[in-house]
Specification:
- This protein is mostly beta strands and about 80 residues long.
- It has one domain.
- Helix content is about 0%, strand content about 45%.
- The chain contains no helices and 6 strands.
- A hairpin with an 8-residue loop joins strand 4 and strand 5.
Length: about 80
């Protein structure tokens, strides 16, 4: 499904589920976070999405260049 640093796409939850917190580090070591329902790995970007309801297209939260995404993981409580 993806070839980005051995990662697999996050499971695709429904909009009824809470947003998930994702954490990663940039190439310079800065910690970054984003809230989204799911993410996808594109050839040059990792994209974070909020799933919409009622036929409305999902909303893009953030597209981060692959070179600036290291140690990407979902935060756990």
């Amino acid at each position: 499904m993806t070839s980005f640093f051995g990662q697999t796409e996050a499971a695709h939850p429904t909009a009824d589920q809470p947003l998930r917190d994702f954490i990663w580090f940039t190439a310079t070591g800065k910690r970054r976070t984003a809230q989204a329902h799911y993410l996808t790995f594109m050839p040059e970007h990792v994209t974070f999405w909020i799933e919409s309801r009622d036929g409305i297209p999902d909303r893009l939260v953030l597209a981060q260049a692959n070179r600036d995404v290291h140690g990407l993981h979902e935060a756990t409580c």
